[in-house]
Amino acid sequence: MRATKITMTTNKATSVITARFINVHNVLSVYVSLVRENLSSLTKLRLMTMNSSK
Fold first, then answer.
1. Stretch (H or E) spanning 25
2. Residues near 35 by beta carbon (within 8 Å), at least 6 away in sequence
3. What residue spans define the domains of the chain?
4. Helix axes 2-37, 39-53, angle to 10 degrees
5. What does each C-alpha distance from 39 to 28, 31, 34, 35 come to in angstroms?
6. What is the pLDDT of residues 5-33, one digit of tens each?
7. Distance, CA of 47 to CA of 52 (rounded, Å)
8. Is the pLDDT of residue 54 over 70?
């Protein structure tokens, strides 16, 4: 009984961690694709920000 409970808890924790990892991976994938698409505009924005912060 106790061993089963531990196993269930471990499985639950593993599935939660896996789900979070998948979410993070998806977010990173979206972010990377957005960065690739907008790389030139991001560079311009960064240059503008650097110039204005001086």
1. helix 2-37
2. 42
3. 2-53
4. 80
5. 15, 11, 8, 5
6. 878 888 898 999 899 998 999 999 999 99
7. 9
8. no
For position 27, what pLDDT does the model report? 92
pTM listed for this prediction? 0.44
Q: How far apart are CA 31 and CA 2, in angstroms?
A: 43
Side chain identity at residue 24, one-letter code: V
Count of C-beta atoms within a 10 Å radius of residue 3: 7
Mention every residue, 6+ apart, whose C-beta is less than 8 A from residue 54. none
